[in-house]
Specification:
By secondary structure, the chain is mostly helical. It is about 65% helix and about 5% strand. Strands 1, 2, 3, 4, 5 and 6 form a 6-stranded mixed sheet that branches. Helix 5 runs antiparallel to helix 14 and helix 15 packs across helix 18. It is globular and about 75 Å long. It starts with a helix and ends with a helix.
Length: about 575
């Protein structure tokens, strides 16, 4: 039982850790860096690297290395990472991977095979140079290093694409789909490695049973589990308070799945990750519910976990520059080259293929989680763990910059979407409040002035919309598609006073709908138009201003005379 003193110190420790992690996380975001970077730095400052060196008594007072308080803190951080993997799993959209088809599979496979082969070969032939633990099995170490280089960080990649306004573009969809493939295969391989580790750690189940149960559990939860989720969510939403009922339902089942995988000899995070995939795949999970769960976990539990990493390792004492450079070089070269070749094979231009490679190179939180598990399991030493953390941060910080430069987004003059408007493709009062019918209505405006077939174009835009909703914040929706044979971009605008449900994350109906058609071979045109729309209507109440327009002239005048951005 915790004493009065233990409870006091526990609450003080958590408050200090969370305050520093959130504060430095927000500071990192202000300088356009991943929040996880600031959160890890907070742990380094509070851990043995800084506070432990300057004032060891204060460090041990807040974060003791033995006793009940250490056990409670480890339990809290374990819960935090289990919940974080639930959110990470919800980001995995398996249906989008299959819809992207051949490009996603090719890029996903090449993005795994190249890093895996190079990583395994390096770790097998020079294990001591790469930081193998003295008591680790060389084969398991080589498998771990290969998997660590192969896996991606889907949440980080998604955030980078959002920041560049590429997330809902076609090239962004390919990156996301390939990253989904990487994540799923990488975590399955790592689950097998954890099962192999269990053979030497005294777990009750033999390794064959552990691996077999892991694969069966993964297959069941992604098929039968997903089906049951589709049937259960409507009932939960109908008979419980919203959104608390759904949130409690999701967290409860995630913890049960985590407990099962922990019991069979695989880390609890794998069960939560798979459940997150099944939950996120359900069409009955509203974007607003998803966002609420994401924000609660990402702003409370995730910072506690990532800050706690710095409490375990002295980053200065175990900083090995040569090892860091070797790991960074192997990881980046293998991932970028593999995805580049996959992109070229899929028909992308050289610049786009290189951009895909650097986009897939972001490792972020997933790499750090794998490294921490391997450190705790005595597979790697602390030098390798520090190298993996730094590699994850560096690749996450540089991926967006390289993508931006390769796609030329910062060099070209910005295209305005209003450059492609005319009175004939402007509708100040849409006749329907249904999403598909709204798209067909706007397609009809464009096709009246061209030889394009309205039914064919409408179907293509609707198929694209079903892959991922094209809603933006502030009541804007941007349904779009790339059309073969189109000579130049075409845009149509519709205003809706009643609003149209485009499944927006903030729950708001879309009242400004902008349809975008671009040539199939011109990816940049689509990206730049989407970026312009995102900048133009990013301020609150900007849509309310344009809804006052009764004519195309008034609409254009509002855009040219008001500073919405």
């Amino acid at each position: 039982m915790l004493s009065h003193h233990d409870v006091t110190i526990f609450l003080l420790s958590v408050s200090v850790l969370l305050f520093c992690a959130r504060g430095l996380g927000e500071l990192a975001k202000r300088y356009h860096q991943p929040a996880v970077m600031g959160e890890i730095i907070a742990g380094i400052l509070l851990g043995p690297t800084v506070l432990g060196a300057i004032a060891p008594s204060y460090h041990l007072f807040l974060f003791p290395e033995t006793g009940n308080l250490k056990i409670v803190l480890e339990g809290l951080t374990t819960l935090a990472i289990v919940l974080f993997l639930l959110v990470a799993g919800m980001e995995v959209d398996l249906s989008s991977m299959w819809r992207q088809g051949k490009p996603a599979v090719i890029i996903g496979v090449s993005g795994i095979v190249f890093p895996f082969v190079l990583g395994f070969s390096s770790a097998w032939f020079i294990p001591q140079a790469l930081g193998i633990h003295a008591e680790a099995d060389p084969f398991i170490f080589a498998l771990f290093f290969a998997t660590a280089l192969s896996i991606t960080a889907l949440p980080v990649i998604a955030k980078i694409l959002m920041d560049l306004n590429l997330y809902r573009s076609d090239i962004g969809m390919v990156v996301i789909a390939a990253a989904v493939f990487n994540d799923l295969i990488g975590w399955l391989i790592f689950a097998v490695i954890l099962g192999m580790m269990g053979k030497s750690s005294g777990l009750p189940l033999p390794i064959e049973y552990t691996i077999g149960l892991t694969l069966c559990f993964a297959g069941l939860i992604l098929t039968l589990g997903k089906w049951m989720m589709d049937r259960s969510l409507p009932w939960v939403q109908a008979h419980t308070s919203w959104p608390g009922g759904v949130l409690g339902f999701a967290v409860t089942l995630a913890l049960l799945c985590a407990a099962f995988t922990e019991w069979i000899g695989i880390h609890a995070i794998f069960g939560a990750f798979l459940f997150g995939i099944a939950l996120g795949e359900s069409p009955h999970l509203h974007e607003r519910t998803r966002a609420t769960l994401d924000q609660f976990i990402s702003f409370i539990f995730a910072p506690l976990f990532f800050a706690s990493i710095g409490l375990h390792v002295n980053f200065l004492l175990h900083f090995d520059l040569l090892l860091i450079l070797v790991v960074l070089l192997i990881a980046t070269a293998a991932k970028v080259l593999g995805c580049f070749l996959g992109g070229r094979w899929s028909g992308f231009s050289s610049r786009e293929a290189w951009a895909l490679g650097f986009g897939m190179n972001a490792r972020g939180a997933m790499e750090i989680i794998l490294g921490l598990l391997a450190l705790r399991a005595d597979i790697i030493d602390q030098r390798m763990f520090v190298a993996l953390v730094i590699m994850a941060l560096v690749t996450s910080m540089t991926s967006g910059t390289f993508m931006q430069r390769l796609l030329g987004l910062q060099k070209k003059q910005v295209i305005r979407f209003i450059d492609f408007l005319s009175p004939k493709v402007f509708q100040n009062s849409l006749q329907t409040s249904e999403r598909e019918q709204t798209i067909q209505e706007l397609v009809g405006l464009i096709c009246k002035e061209t030889e394009l077939d309205a039914q064919t174009i409408g179907n293509k835009v609707w198929i694209r919309e079903q892959m991922m909703p094209t809603s933006l914040p502030q009541g804007v929706a941007v349904p779009h598609a790339q059309i073969a044979g189109l000579q130049k971009p075409m845009v149509a605008v519709g205003l809706s006073q009643m609003g149209v449900d485009f499944d927006a994350e903030d729950g708001e109906p879309a009242r400004l709908i902008i349809l975008i058609l671009t040539p199939e071979e011109d990816h940049n045109a689509q990206l730049e138009i989407l970026s312009d729309i995102g900048r133009t209507f990013q301020k609150p109440k900007s849509v309310e201003q344009v809804l006052k327009a009764n004519t195309y002239t008034e609409f254009l005048a509002l855009l040219r005379t008001h500073d919405f951005s």
